[in-house]
Amino acid sequence: MGEVFLRFLLPRRVISDNGTQFVSAVMQQMCYLLKIHQSFIPVYHPQANPVERKNRDLKPRLSILVEDQHDSWCEKLPSIRFAMNTAKCSSTGQTAAFLTFGRELLTVDEV
Predict the structure, then answer these.
(1) What average pLDDT does range 4-11 have in this prediction?
(2) For tag attachment on the chain, is the N or C end more exposed, with fewer CB atoms within 10 Å?
(3) Reported pTM
């Protein structure tokens, strides 16, 4: 959570599954003190979890780039993340980067 706060500032809301790290007394106290609203995804309903949906999109891309070099997957994540963040969402017509930062990310060709 600290890395998220340092990168994106404090959220107004945190959506998570019911993992012990999210339902712990420490997490609940932190959210209370920082005035962050916690929302939990229903148990056994991964379709409602936006992270699970992104992981479903990430897995095939990662397997294509990694192929048989399973020790290199962490090196491939930044390029996959960039591709996913700059792809337009069919429901909003916007990219994740635009919705997060209020602007599109620039590629090397656009600099």
Answers:
(1) 80
(2) C
(3) 0.60
Please compute Rg for the chain using Cα positions: 17
Amino acid at 44: Y
> 44-92 pLDDT, tens per residue?
776 677 777 788 888 888 888 887 777 778 888 888 889 889 999 888 9
Cα separation, 59 vs 61, whole angstroms? 6
Question: Per DSSP, what are the bridge partners of residue 13?
Answer: 37
Decide: 58 and 80 in contact? Cβ < 8 Å. yes
SS3 sequence of 37-105:
EEEECCCCCHHHCHHHHHHHHHHHHHHHHHCCCHHHHHHHHHHHHHHHHHCECCCCCCEHHHHHHCCCC
Decide: helix, strand or coil at residue 77: helix
How far apart CA 49 and CA 39 sit, in angstroms, is: 11
Sequence-separated (6 or more) residues with CB below 8 Å from residue 109: none
Angle at 87 between CA 85 and CA 92, to 5 degrees: 100
